[in-house]
Design a protein that fits this description.
heteropentamer; A alpha/beta (393); B alpha+beta (354); D mainly alpha (295); E mainly alpha (282); D: 295 residues; mainly alpha; MetI-like fold; 0% strand; flat; E: 282 residues; 13 helices; globular; binds adenosine-5'-triphosphate; binds magnesium ion; P-loop_NTPase (chains B, C); ATP binding (chains B, C)
Amino acid sequence: GEVEVLHWWTSGGEAKAASALKATLQAKGHSWKDFAVAGGGGDSAMTVLKSRVVSGNAPAAAQIKGPSLQEWAAEGVLANIDDVAKAEKWDSVLPPVVANVMKYKGNYIAAPVNVHRVNWLWANPEVFKKAGAKVPTTWDEFFVSAEALKKAGIIPVAHGGQPWQDFTTFESVALGVGGTDFYKKALVQLDQATLKSATMDKVLETFRKVKGYTDKNAPGRDWNLATAMVIKGEAGMQLMGDWAKGEFIAAGKVPGKDFTCAAAPGTAKAFTFNVDSFAMFKLKNEANVKAQKDLAAAIMSTDFQEVFNLNKGSIPVRLNMDLAKFDDCAKLSSKDFVDTAKSASLVPSVAHGMAVPSAAAGAIQDAVSQFWNSDKMSVADAKAKIASAAMTK
Amino acid sequence: MGALSIRNVRKTYSGDIHILKGIDLEIEKGEFLILVGPSGCGKSTLLSMIAGLDSPTSGTIHIGERDVTHELPKNRDIAMVFQSYALYPNMNVAENIAFGLEMRKVPKAEREKAVARVAKMLQIEHLLERKPGALSGGQRQRVAMGRALARDPALFLFDEPLSNLDAKLRVEMRAEIKQLHQRTKTTTVYVTHDQVEAMTLGDRIAVMQGGVVQQFGTPDDIYSRPATVFVAEFIGSPAMNMLRGTAAAGGVSVGGTLLATHAEHQAAAPAGRKVIYGLRPEKISFAASGLAGEITMLEPTGPETYVSVKTAAGAVVVRLAGHVAEQVGDTVHLSWSTDAVHLFDGETEKRLGR
Amino acid sequence: MGALSIRNVRKTYSGDIHILKGIDLEIEKGEFLILVGPSGCGKSTLLSMIAGLDSPTSGTIHIGERDVTHELPKNRDIAMVFQSYALYPNMNVAENIAFGLEMRKVPKAEREKAVARVAKMLQIEHLLERKPGALSGGQRQRVAMGRALARDPALFLFDEPLSNLDAKLRVEMRAEIKQLHQRTKTTTVYVTHDQVEAMTLGDRIAVMQGGVVQQFGTPDDIYSRPATVFVAEFIGSPAMNMLRGTAAAGGVSVGGTLLATHAEHQAAAPAGRKVIYGLRPEKISFAASGLAGEITMLEPTGPETYVSVKTAAGAVVVRLAGHVAEQVGDTVHLSWSTDAVHLFDGETEKRLGR
Amino acid sequence: MSTPSAAARLDHWLPRLVLAPSFVLSFLFIYGLIAWNGYLSVSASRLLPNYEFVGLQQYEILFQSERWMVALKNLGIFSVLFIGIGMALGLLLAILLDQKIRAEGLLRTIYLYPMALSFIVTGTAWKWILNPGLGLEHLMQQWGFENFRFDWLVDPDMAIYTVVIAGVWQSSGFVMALFLAGLRGIDDSIIKAAQIDGATLPQIYWRIIIPSMRPVFFSTLMVLAHIAIKSFDLVMALTAGGPGFATDVPATFMYTHAFTRGQIGLGAASATVMLATVAAIVVPYLYSELRSQRR
Amino acid sequence: MKNVHRFIIFGLLGVFALFFLLPFYVMLVTSLKDMGEIRGGSLLALPAGLNFEAWGKAWSSACTGTDCNGLQPFFWNSMAMIIPAVAISTTLGALNGYVLTKWRFKGSELLFSFMLFGVFMPLQVVLLPMSQILGWVGLSDSIWGLITVHVLMGLASTTLFFRNYYIGLPDELIKAAMLDGAGFFRIFVRIVLPLSTPILVVTLIWQFTNIWNDFLFGVVFSGADSKPITVGLNNLANTSSSVKEYNVDMAAAMIAALPTLLVYVVAGKYFVRGLTAGAVKG
Ligand SMILES: Nc1ncnc2c1ncn2[C@@H]1O[C@H](COP(=O)(O)OP(=O)(O)OP(=O)(O)O)[C@@H](O)[C@H]1O
Ligand SMILES: Nc1ncnc2c1ncn2[C@@H]1O[C@H](COP(=O)(O)OP(=O)(O)OP(=O)(O)O)[C@@H](O)[C@H]1O
Ligand SMILES: [Mg+2]
Ligand SMILES: [Mg+2]
């Protein structure tokens, strides 16, 4: 059969990773029709997907993640792949939080690919040494270090002023300042009381304080340029997901030596995950359905999980995998993933569309980003805006 | 039924500008109709309507037996010379001339022959490769002519086709047109401002004014028996002298002077009636006696001289052959035959008698 | 030094098309120069050069004391009527006329007065609000005139400004131009194909042919003493009869017939020399005796009739006043005075004697 | 009156027949889609279109949205400046190029090339140039102009103007081409007449040439206006609506909500409002322009 | 005096040329640098050497999905699409403009204004319904579907351009040709088209550029193996969570722009003056 796969892994390591999947499928005698559309974290791909579905021409699988899976499933266009999941024992190898995201009304409708950790802090140790500061583990320490870096004439925090980056930073601050429970209540369950609580004030104040340590040229900057600032030593640290690691490595830097990966301040015991997954669409052709199921199985296979995540910089979604080939940061990440899964402090990333439906996430992002960018807006205003945004349906 | 009949044709622009106010004209096959009239009287508009480039607000146009009022131009088999030339700027002269033939599927060899023929006739052989932009005014006009003459249509329409040519060329072209017409006997409508063209080319002349045909007749009719003051003044250069007066016994009293008239005129206009006494400048001569006057201006044109004379009956222009010995300021006596007099009603300006 | 001097001006297109081949003209302040010549001889080109719209390939142009050969048009203070009208399509008639004044910062009130004045003069008062697209050919031409006449320039250039007007209007316009010139005494260059215009308006006439000035003189000079066969044939309508023959005792022998000449002519052309015997049609009359011939064509134009006569000496055209009683085919005798004869060299075609 | 022949009748209908396919298709699609979109705007559509009627609810949400108001305001600022500057610059360039310039071909291509480049990548280059830390400001300061400031891109109040700059940069070359084509179509002889009338070169352009290019202005205005209203790539590539949503415009608003956030109903409502706004401005203009151009 | 004028004109033209060229310069030098230089160096600095690696990679080996053949395949897809799309929309636009100016009929202006208003419809509105329609008529995911959409969306503009140019052509020419016996199409082909070069060039530039650079329609309506170059370029340049290779992006952008530039250079020659010289007087 033939599988047409809509994804947005298009360049460099990602593309190689996707090729691995293609090779696996081809080995099973299926043909692979590649439908890659990059851009905006999959915005364009979603547009294409919608029109393909509307024209009655859905692909076999499409890269969809988080609550969107549920939304798509609710439209009745996704296929049930429980038989594959059962055969491959997905329930036992996946942490329940992740598995739940992959299910609609108890049935698997998607196969997860990888896990990104979002709450990372990347730092340039050399710069820290020069400024006599240490890589912070709490927000208080963070500001102390930032002050020191600033005195040394270094931009303390490298930031790219795009709404999703603002939101990513916000999410890490919320997790670090408010803790896991607060995070879940406020940003996953969208509990109005929590969103209006005093903790929220603190989160917003801290968030604004972070901005004070970014440079004024941040707005519009791509995340990787911010990373480059850390690499070059122009800036001291960056709050960003683990994809940032790729930039360091591409620049020839060695983890642990030339750069440090640490959990974002106050979040060492927590893990905001961003899981990529493939939703499986209902198909008419039998042969293609078979190919589709093979695809689902292949995605979750240990071989693929290893190859893919080595290329992508993320970690396998399967628990209990051999991580010998992975670097230190990945190992740390994986360890935290397993630990937090047990301690229930594994939380979905709201900034990356893992926690709440896109409409609400988008509205909250608007409010957060507006607060970040407008120094005139009061904390109370921002809090009210975020709370009302959370009610968007 | 004629070759071309125009019946009660009217044309109105934007609701209230009436250009043609009911034109009726009928000409026979092979006839050469001249249209004359003051600038802006609607001549070009009428030609456009005959060609089908514009449609009448009301009325019909027949070519032969056919009602063509709503027929497309290309189905009317008409060739036209536009007053504004309308040359195809992207084609050279030869292509411009051959285009009409090509559209009618005339074979190449014949087209080339036709182009050569008209180019010779119009003296533009050396220009065949040029684009219209690189031609002089008169050359453009000849190309416009060539485009029509290359064809052999059922009807020719010419809109002032010779106006930009020098006198010599114009005479030659006029002769060519005349010959062509005599040879092919193609029905033709020809607009001109040149009296010589009008008189020598036309079988019949229609004089238009203000969207109305004032007189429709042979050249001789028009010249010798103008139906109205307008026609009389319009044809002939310098224009006919018009002296307003009152019919009296034996003639017309103008400003106290009695000017003699023919017996027939006397009969037509009873004494006391307001009349206009018309006299062509070329019919007047200097004599020993007659109406006395003072010369106010002398205009020698070469073969003749126009003399303006101030008389008791009003200003009179006299056209005399050759040079004139008299000077401005001299007193002269004017004489003419009563046969030469045209008489018009003072109110209606219509011709009286004879 | 004159008001306008054109010195050895040449114009060549694309390297080898020589349009003007060394023009020298000089006119005084207030003079009215008429340019005539066959279509395509370079009249408009010369005007363009005077106006500064085109620059000569070589030679200089002075206006007054100033060498303006490389001066911009707007600094030459010239008003021009274009042969192709070149009206501004986006402006109405009034705006077209006022534009030149506006550019010269004439106050609004004065502009309006000027527009009213020329509109009246050109009889286009009722058209002032129209755009050029809604005008007839003659109306456009008058607007083009109006644009020039509204101004008070150092030099007027007119390129066939009356060609599309009816005879009556043309006479009136001619008179207006003449009056205007008499009043303002503005130096003027005027291209025309109309002999009457040329003869009555011009102080001097330049006859051009093939990019060369053939004769430059007063109207009377040009008409009565044409310097070359070309000029003689070009001016006058119908053209001068030209009979090629050989000088003989007492006259010129043409096809075996001896035509008498004046004594001075006999002196200028020794017997045996190839000469051309020129005779204007209007100088010939029918007589009881004289050169015999048969009438081949009669063309009545109204005031006169053109008669073509086949004689032993060749075809001769005669221009007679009024109607002619004779018919085609009749034999007539032609007579003329030896004073009327023009004699030209048979080779150089230059005027001989007198 | 006679009845025209069959051939004549065909000739009579031919122009309409030629126009028919274009018009029928345009109508079906344009107005069909506008109607469809109108319906969606009163439906409960979220991720995919559905047809559950919810009244004007989407419009209420829309007009309570601060972001939409910002988008509308930005569209106003952007359109006016973009169209105004784009026209002026395009016309200026066309006129300059019309002066028998030797390097015309090269310069024309230079002015046009921004059109050729997809904003997918040009946006990056512009972001760098406009970024105070990387681009112009940085450079000028390095060259010793310490006080040189050019930080609009990162200033929420000014960022929309950088979008104008990039938009003008991209489009004025095409405007130039449109005007140049218009200029080249003008009859030389009326220019000559104006020279004789004593007009200076600027006056000739201003009084004679430009007024007779009215249809070209009309084309240009329509083109620029629709680029302005639909500008999407430009904003996405340069600022992606940021900082915050300071440079959001209706097109990005609509796209984001309809496609990224699964709020098709809201997106449709925004498209309808946008069209209605445009109609209020454009339709009277279209009407008067087409009337007056009729000859 | 004249020289001063020239100097000012050239000065202005030069300044604008610099403004227009600045981004191009940045893109060009970036495409010639390697990533190290880009990360470390100044934006406007010249590259250390001429390094065309990025260009090669962009053309033939960069990954744009699971395939790593660079832009090459997309390039040819775009070519196959653009030629019919531009040809059809330009032809229709020219014919429409011709009818709307020289063969007016009652209501033609009204029809046109309706059509024109359509250009203001946001493109995004088109996407979903159009895919549904293309699905119904069996053109979804095909190059012809894409061509159809481009033609439809371009019609209003091309019609506008031609109409507004043809308005200036003297009606007399059409009349003369009618009398010469030419019919509707022959007048168009023999008289009108030869006088249209400047506007043909403009329309060509507009349509070619818009279609060539369109991303949204290209990505939505094309099939998996008929994706146009912008999709390739987007896939190269627009990744958000992986290492960016700016040099390759810039080189790719320039490669993608080459055909358009070529059109500008070639077509630009036909911006000629005086096409209607000598046509009519008035
Ligand atoms: N661009 C050009 N290239 C070549 N020859 C040209 C060009 N423009 C004009 N000519 C030629 O120059 C000659 C003179 O043209 P010009 O317009 O001066 O004639 P003219 O005397 O005004 O004639 P007319 O009385 O017919 O208006 C003509 O033979 C014409 O064909
Ligand atoms: N579009 C229009 N709107 C209003 N009036 C017009 C329009 N077109 C022409 N006219 C008027 O119609 C009248 C007749 O024009 P036409 O061209 O038939 O005159 P004409 O007899 O050919 O004059 P000419 O001898 O000057 O060429 C003119 O007075 C003109 O002003
Ligand atoms: Mg006329
Ligand atoms: Mg001329």
